[in-house]
Request: fold
Amino acid sequence: MKTAQGGLIADAPKAAPSGGRLRALDGLRLLAALMVACYHYGGRGGEITHAWGTSAARVFPTLHTPFSYGCLGVQIFFVISGFVICMSGWGRSPRSFFASRAARLLPAYWVAVLLVTAVFALPVVVYETVSPSDVLVNLTLLQQPLGVDRVLGVDWTLWAEVRFYALFALCVVLPGANRRRVILFCAGWILAAAIAQGAHQPLLDLVLMPEYAPFFVGGVGLYLVHRDRRDPYAWGITGVSFLIGQHYAVRSLWNAADPDAFAHRTSFGIIAVVAFGFVAVGAIALGWLERVNWRWLTVAGALTYPFYLVHEHLGWVVVETLHRRLGVPSYATFLLTIASMLLLAYAMNRLVEEKLTPRLRKALSAPRG
Reply:
């Protein structure tokens, strides 16, 4: 069985030049998704406060601060995505690359949008849904640039992934992937993103994503390390990406000066989590985790994308039902909510992704006269 995501939505980590399947990458993906779930259920305010009936800081007086670092699971996803997209795009034609990306991304996403919309439309569910028109726009994945209300709170990360795919396709896949071209792509994107940050031009920010570029580029650099661990350019790309990436993570997430912050993250803690993401992918790239080759990790990787899509909004409903209506204790509610979202993700993978992804890829890959 193949997984349905790389960082979130790329191909499964197939055989690399040295051979073997990178199952540890599947496990790291699910770990990053669970980090994000911990953040959404116990590491922030917002709608989850209504679900619990009080602030999650009161529900989890000890864990709410560690949970607040879970949002950095997204940055880890981006590093993984850079690694896997470079791996899967190497040697592919533009048509094949586009078909693979669209087929991996869209079926589960469409189902998640419709499922969350349907659940939120139930009379017993108090969370506000978006308008029918906005739901239809959400199916295109272009709701953010069009200024439309989002059905899924997590889909902003998919918009970042799509822009990365477009840049990689235009600069690497279209002309043909090779080491020199990938290095130039990484160096050019990092430099252009820095210029965009200094220029304060919204269009450049939209295209070049200065805040997230270092994580995608860092993953690409680690794939070059995977191909040749003695490549100084690959190590240089990875190192510079980490140095810039931690800066953006600290700048956006360090909230020590905010007295009303849900939890106060430390700059050291943020840097440590970012470093963990780079080191973990680096250990996989270097083959240090080859022994972590358990078959169940493939299943874990397959659950990551659908779990990520549905866990936040449907998690609110499950938490409210279990904790406020049925009186289930908070920690049991937390674990049961995670388990129920994983079960739903398994159903989506088996009933949606395994059936529709190959058909959509075949249809998009077929040559036309």
